[in-house]
Predict the 3D structure of the following.
Amino acid sequence: MSGARTDAQARGHADAYEPVFVGEGRTRLDAVLAKYPTKAAALLPALWIVQEKHGWISPTGMAEVAEALGLTAAYVKGVVTFYTMYHQHPVGRHFVQVCTTTPCNVCGAERVGEAFLKATGAKRYGETSPDGGWTVVEVECLGACGFATPVMIDDDFIESVTPESVPALVAKYR
Amino acid sequence: MGFPHPIHPKENPVLSRHFGEADARTYAGWVQRGGYRALEKALGMTREQVIEEVKASGLRGRGGAGFPAGVKWGFMPKQKTRPHYLCCNADESEPGTFKDREIMRWTPHALIEGCAIAAYAIQAEQVYIYIRGEFTEPLRVMQAALDEAYAKGVVGANAMGKGVRIDLTIHRGAGAYICGEETALMNSIEGKRGNPRIRPPFPAAVGVFGCPTTINNVETLSSVPHVIEKGGAWYKGLSLSNPKSTGTKLFSICGTIARPGNYEVTMGFPLKDLLYDVAGGMRPGHKLKAVIPGGSSVPILTAAEADETLLDYEGCVAKGTMLGSGGMIVLDDATDMVYQVMRLAKFYAHESCAQCTQCREGTAWTVKILQRLLNGEGRKEDLDLLLDLAEQMTGRTICVLSDSCAAPVVSAIKKFPDEFAAYLRRGRTAAAT
């Protein structure tokens, strides 16, 4: 199991923003920068580093990335909002993505999604459960259609999930 | 092989022979299986000889377009005045397609070797492997294999000790289907929104970072070592039907099928045999209704059409569809075609980059009209409206996402008119009973 957020990450960091690109974070960014001919090309990797540390990418996080790469905060926001995997709001400790596109849909993927809502206590897709533990979303094609229904829990990619297998899966991560 | 299924006697496992063998992921395990011999051979050839060999093989792009790989490489400038780049498209996101994921999971060194050969041929010192963000396992496996390849000196400043620089970098996407479109992919590498670019200029002239660039799919590049090692003539000989379609192809079979998985067969293999024989046929008690043979972007085939289709580029075109990526979505008689077509349209509406009006508005309108039909609120002019809309969405935009949304809608309305008519008359609940 990997990629789960801590309680602090799930709450966000409204009060105190801890910079990402200092010390080891800066070293990581420098290693990325060495692989591209422009600084801007490090934007997607830099955003991943921010999300890994904070669990989401806040406006302050976007500003830090902009500063580090010589871009404007507006430009960075334009990029963040284009890609679905960057969280623009804090999400639950566990983030569940259920594929419901056609190939999985005909194999019962919508029932898998509903089973996750029921087992986690999240009221609807995109809304975090009252205990802050779970955010469940429906996503378009995860690229594992032969293993319907594929589900991502945090960074873990789980194949062949059925409505029946959901409760045990949720219990494992809880 | 159709991992996790054993190799079927009718398969021809060239790329997939070692799927499921954990040891094949390591450098030692890969070398034991004959790995990196092709790279060594290629680095002893001239760049022109490598390109000629790939041209002779007839290998065509496996990402969907089917453009001859050697010809594409030949478009790169012969005189290098600026850096050249190779981008490997591993953004596999076309619904129904999951073959590149399996290649990267099980045979990462095959892809690294293919990338290195291609980079040498087009004089690229830097390769970017663009892997979709959700592929956490392939990302891990590829990075581990790449680290090992660097440690063994297979790639890097002095690849295989032959004095050639070949650097590879894995670039993680962040959730955007459109980044599988080659010009959007380059924008994404540059740190931009994944908006496709207008062509011309073509990537071989002005690609990533404004420099000459070739973009190839994972399966295409992974086929290259076999072409180099066994020769273009050998590869060209792998063809059961049309000689313009050569080699083997991985088909990702999914949907309502008994044994979903990736199966590798020689080009020109009958679709019927692949479904009923290799992939185990329909689930008990069900009959085939339709097949979308090349990923969700291609026209739908009825069961009768599927029975007569030969799986190669020309065979699919002859039946009014396309081989595409080889992502085969099987739909049996329990499928509600109107609902599933709406789901596909919803996919495209969600993934539209929103640059072009026909696509941004057209995909959303298509979903809205289909939902209206499903809710029993369809109007009698709605089917004509959908067809008219589809026409406005075809061939008028920067990239083909809009066309991809229109193709399944048009073919479903034309081939399954009764299902649409039922919704028009009674609404979804009544139509389903």
The longest helix of chain B spans residues 357-374.
